């Protein structure tokens, strides 16, 4: 008698893009944590070319559409972008918000930049918002001396843990809402 293959629970596909390699590394770290926790979600992570918020939203939408046939529909879509990009062209900012809303692309604002966003993963820094990249990077390197831009998910995982993510989720409502929508409780 032939043995029946075990049923494998289908994972929800989650799309997460960001402005560059650092955000891609962060997304891959999230994917690793989800796997370790045996969550029924899988992240497809992409690095974009940069630009203003509208450029980034349009790039993310194009990537989602190009992947649709190969990977199936994404249950949740997110975009990590630096808040310091806002305000340069208000009409383009408004258009970016409209397009993201229409396509259910969740914007995860890193205020003001990725290094400040990462800083809020550390104890005592959850409400800290350095005013610029230089100060954010200096403070982050005080907590994480080996940090450098463009690290991959494995390098993030050498320092950041589930506890770091829990702290960040309390400080970063956009991140928390994105992860809840993805199925991460």
Describe this structure in words.
The protein is globular. Helices cover 49% and strands 15% of the residues. The protein has eight helices and four strands. The relative contact order is 0.17. The protein has a single domain (12-182), classed as Rossmann fold (3-Layer(aba) Sandwich). β3, α3 and β4 (105-110) form a beta-alpha-beta unit. α7 packs across α8 (173-182). Strands 2-1-3-4 form a four-stranded parallel sheet, sandwiched between helices. The termini are far apart. It is an alpha/beta fold and 185 residues long. The protein has helices at 21-36, 53-71, 90-102, 114-119, 133-143, 153-157, 162-171, 173-182, and strands spanning 12-18, 41-47, 76-82, 105-110.
Layout of secondary structure:
Blueprint: E1 12-18, H1 21-36, E2 41-47, H2 53-71, E3 76-82, H3 90-102, E4 105-110, H4 114-119, H5 133-143, H6 153-157, H7 162-171, H8 173-182
Parallel strand pairs: 1-2, 1-3, 3-4
Helix pairs in contact: 2-3, 7-8
SS elements, strand count: 4
Q: Looking at CATH, which topology would you report?
A: Rossmann fold
- As a percent range, the share of strand residues is 5-15%
CATH architecture: 3-Layer(aba) Sandwich
Order of helices and strands: EHEHEHEHHHHH
For the sheet with most strands, the description reads: 4 strands, parallel
Strand order of the largest sheet: 2-1-3-4
- Contiguous low-pLDDT stretches (5 residues minimum) are none
Radius of gyration: 17 Å
The global form is: globular
**Average pLDDT metric:** 94
Quick one: CATH class? Alpha Beta
Number of helices: 8
Distance between the termini: 41 Å
Number of domains: 1
